[in-house]
Write a structure and sequence with these properties.
Chain lengths: 95, 485
């Protein structure tokens, strides 16, 4: 299997990572060698095998729906790169 | 008294408890040596002034009932520490100051330990040589220009160089055990669910686990006893009866059945690794263990499985880094452009590569072929261990397929870098505990490690086997302080 440049750009879009042509070429090379290595899994027949979704054999615990942390507004917004009063600021999204 | 920084954790605890030395003296000794060891680049953030202040406070009002009384400890920069910068080795978190503390670090402060600083690591713990860190390469105290391993490379290097008496790392595919092996130190990856993941920067949530790194097995048991706890803030934390690992530590392993998996005898394995393994088998026999040949037939599929599961989870975990809520932000023409530039400039190339792999294997049309397939194979790998543990109590393997390599040697070949983790990755996929102990040197004088893998939640058993073998192996690290001028 080969991942072409068009696919790389599509994955980059989905990943929200900007990729120019040069970087896309490098990534295509890397990803192709990694997927060549991954293809080994196709040797195995797994139709009858169940997927392992969680290694910790515990069921989720129920707890009371109580408020445990309050007034964290300042803490939450503290590390924001751009803020305005109690809001995160992002580039304008409405024309 | 011997040089403070050369003392083991249990010696330091003893000497502080019997008032032979103060916490301040110990703290200053490690800080002095750290100041002289900047060339190794082990620290991302130093917290030295604060550490001395805390040590003085401890000495004024000491509590000798604690398990780590006034002991200074530096930790991997993947643990969120309240009011102390936490970067995960990434530019994207270069200015992130957590407003909360990880459970694992909180556990060690609760027992009297003092934070020395935050140690370098591969970016988001993605790497096997500490070369993906935004904050530069870490050098191993073993030799110049030698990698300490990764991703807990700063931790391993600082520990081996006596800049911290013990440390904690995280292990997703070998990130504690491989650097321990490369630096002649002890590293334990506990069972998945043993240590809380709360407050640890997430890489691959179904594999990540914090664990102790130390100079010897006893110190490892002391630290594991402190960090392992049930935590309702982590939904995968398991509420099992935790042992008093250091108290119950025993060298009596007579009659224990230790399995030797034939599939770990991989093609192209250097002769010295083969010999080390044989030496380990002989030591285990000398300790009274019974050696049994076993088979883990799906071993060869573990790395390809890991390189689907881990990037898939990483791509999802790292979606939170969008330049809005915290961390680095780049300027963009619009919201999407800002996201894309922030992530392109904020993440390094290995992280971008893995986010892309993960996004691809989870994307529409490929999910079944890759992600679902990998989850099925993961089940086969876990079943291999379940079958083996019907016959044996633990499994003995080499920790790594080679000794440490030079900085830059494998950087441009991701697949050859990934092969470093061939013996450690299956343990994470199956959620089991594994410990690496130093067991010998190669012909260059670089350390080599052996790995003991246990049943789930059977940390005590592998600690005991390691403790017993450690005495027979009698390993001495060869460190010549070459970086101190």
């Amino acid at each position: 299997m080969t991942i072409d440049l068009k696919t790389i750009k599509h994955i980059a879009k989905l990943s929200r990572i900007s990729v120019d042509d040069e970087k896309a070429k490098k990534l295509a090379g890397d990803l192709n060698s990694i997927f060549d290595f991954i293809e080994k899994l196709n040797e195995l027949k797994t139709d009858q095998i169940k997927p392992l979704t969680s290694i910790a054999e515990t069921s989720l615990k129920l707890r009371n729906d109580e408020i445990k942390s309050q007034n964290m507004r300042e803490e939450i917004i503290k590390n924001s790169p751009e803020k305005n009063e109690d809001y995160f600021v992002v580039p304008k999204v409405i024309e | 008294m011997t040089d403070i920084t050369k003392q083991t954790l249990s010696e330091l605890i003893n000497n502080i408890k019997t008032k032979k030395i103060s916490s301040e003296e110990v703290t200053k000794a490690f800080i002095d040596r750290s100041e002289k060891s900047k060339k190794l680049n082990t620290y991302i953030t130093e917290s030295f002034d604060r550490a001395i202040k805390k040590a003085k406070q401890f000495d004024q009002n000491p509590n000798f009932d604690l398990k780590l009384p006034g002991i200074p400890i530096a930790v991997k920069d993947l643990f969120c520490t309240k009011d102390v910068k936490t970067t995960a080795g990434s530019k994207i978190l270069n200015n992130f100051i957590p407003t909360y503390e990880s459970t694992v670090t909180q556990n060690i402060w609760n027992e009297g330990a003092i934070l020395l600083g935050k140690l370098n690591c591969d970016e988001f713990a993605m790497g096997s040589s500490n070369e993906t860190s935004y904050f530069g390469n870490v050098e191993s105290p073993i030799d110049e220009n030698l990698v300490p391993g990764g991703s807990s490379g700063g931790s391993a290097s600082a520990l081996a160089a006596n800049l911290t008496p013990v440390t904690i790392g995280t292990d997703t595919g070998g990130s504690i055990r491989q650097p321990a092996s490369f630096t002649g130190t002890v590293g334990l990856k506990p069972t998945y669910g043993s240590c809380s993941r709360y407050g640890i920067v997430a890489f691959a949530s179904s594999l990540d686990q914090a664990g102790p790194m130390s100079q010897n097995v006893k110190d490892c048991a002391i630290l594991n006893e402190v960090i392992s706890s049930y935590d309702e803030k982590d939904s995968t934390s398991v509420d099992f009866k935790r042992g008093k690992y250091s108290v119950e530590l025993s060298k009596n392993i007579k009659g224990k059945k230790i399995g030797i998996p034939k599939e770990y005898r991989v093609d192209g394995m250097p002769k010295e690794i083969e010999e080390l393994w044989q030496k380990g088998i002989n030591f285990a026999k000398d300790c009274g263990a019974e050696i049994i040949d076993i088979s883990l037939p799906h071993t060869t599929y573990a790395l390809p499985t890991y390189y689907i599961v881990a990037p898939a989870e990483a791509s999802s975990n790292l979606a939170r880094y969008d330049g809005v809520k915290y961390g680095f932000r780049s300027k963009g023409d619009n919201l999407i452009d800002m996201y894309e530039k922030t992530r392109s400039e904020g993440f390094g190339s290995e992280v971008q590569r893995r986010v892309m792999i993960g996004t691809y294997v989870l994307s529409s049309g490929y999910y079944d072929a890759y992600y679902l397939k990998a989850q099925k194979v993961r089940n086969l790998i876990k079943n291999d261990f379940d079958e083996a543990y019907k016959k044996v109590d633990a499994i003995l393997t080499p920790s790594t397929p080679s000794s440490a390599f030079k900085i830059g040697e494998k950087k441009d070949d991701p697949v050859s870098m990934y092969l470093n983790d061939i013996f450690t990755v299956p343990v994470n996929l199956a959620g089991l505990p594994g410990i690496s102990i130093p067991a010998g040197h190669d012909k260059k004088g670089y350390p080599l490690g052996l790995q003991i893998i246990g049943k789930a939640f059977d940390e005590q058993n592998i600690l005991n086997i390691a403790y017993s073998m450690e005495e027979k192996i009698n390993f001495k690290n060869k460190i010549a302080d070459w970086w101190i001028k």
